[in-house]
# Entry
Amino acid sequence: KQYTPDDIREMVSKEDVRFLRLMFTDLLGTAKNVEVPISQLDQLLAGKLMFDGSSIDGFVRIEESDMYLKPDLSTWMVFPWGDEHGKVARLTCSVYTSDGEKFVGDPRNNLIRVLKEMKDLGFSDFNIGPEPEFFLFELDENGNPTEKLNDKGSYFDLAPMDLAANVRRDMVLELEKMGFNVEASHHEVAPGQHEIDFEYDNAVVAADHIQTFKMVVKTVARRYGLYATFMPKPLNGVNGSGMHMNMSLFDKDGNNAFYDENGEGGLSQTAYYFLGGILKHAQALTAICNPTVNSYKRLVPGFEAPVYIAWSGANRSPMVRVPIARGKGTRLELRSVDPSANPYLAIAAILEAGLDGIRNKIEPDEPIDRNIYRMDGKELKLDHIKKLPATLHNALLDLQEDSVMEDALGSHIYQNFLDAKNMEWTAYSQNVSQWERERYLDML
Ligand code: ADP
Ligand code: MG
Ligand code: MG
Ligand code: MG
Ligand code: MG
# Structure
């Protein structure tokens, strides 16, 4: 809802809000909070609230450190957990430079910029429905996460196996109080693993929701002595956590532009081109949608995560699936994304890839309706099926070669992202792991 400054003032006094939590997201996807007392409200509403951007990783250089936070008033939300010091409300903010320009290194500003390109092509909304998965581990007596899972449940198990059902229900209730439309919540395949799905919304709201979602899930988990982690592959030998992204474009009349009653399989030409763009940029896209070393331990055969660059309307194994819903629910589901991704960057990159497909009329290859994992090397070659990058390093090399992905992030974020992630890879590749000692120490 679009609130005016006066609406905000009214809600502050009606709800007796004492603190404002100002949220924005850094390059790596970490939600940053600046909490100010309510006395700063007028400064904030006037767009004059300053903070020091140089302390934020990968954000700005020291010499341009003075930044302003300008709140997006439509993101107003009072946290349901009041405490003795008074209620806290949050506002998601855009970062501005001291010259009053939108800061190009702010991932949220960047997503809004890419959405303008979409509007220039005649669409009104990019809808995103995320399916975040997470694990619950027990906390030790010092409040630090352990590697001990809290249950032995499995997919769709019912109580008493699913001991975490109460925790999850509490998470859903808190999310609903914060305005989320939760569609489903269930135990996932691995022990201790869960999924909560909420209704799709336009790209910026969906990304804001993902950031709020993570915070709520972690907060509620702590109440139960648990730690919620969105690490893509925390355990060996069981499924990792993904964050499938369901997506569609709506046109100016609010119709789903991916749907065409008379199109092949009920999909429009727009949907096919968008899909073609995603497949074309899949490799570089992976660096942004799967941005950690650990992400690539999830993208392996045998654990329901995609490994090949392919699409299908019939089975769930490829990177892009077309769920059977048609009409308003017509969508593409990108299954490679994991929850370590910065949602603003991931969504901007996916959209830019799709728009490239539309602009350049990129036709996707034929769908692969067989189970790809059962195909042998020769069959895969005949079908020209390429693999997703196997490591962060390979994905970064692909990202370095993809100018459309540079457009998606803008050159400031693109460069800083590559620098930060290349450093992460270097640190990892120089570290001697326990696995290596176990494998080699007494063998060599
Ligand atoms: P799955 O069958 O893969 O488990 P879910 O039912 O868990 O899928 O999640 C489907 C997601 O897709 C939900 O977030 C839902 O709101 C979203 N969705 C539905 N229609 C659309 C659409 N037109 N565009 C984008 N997302 C959509
Ligand atoms: Mg699901
Ligand atoms: Mg489902
Ligand atoms: Mg799932
Ligand atoms: Mg899914």
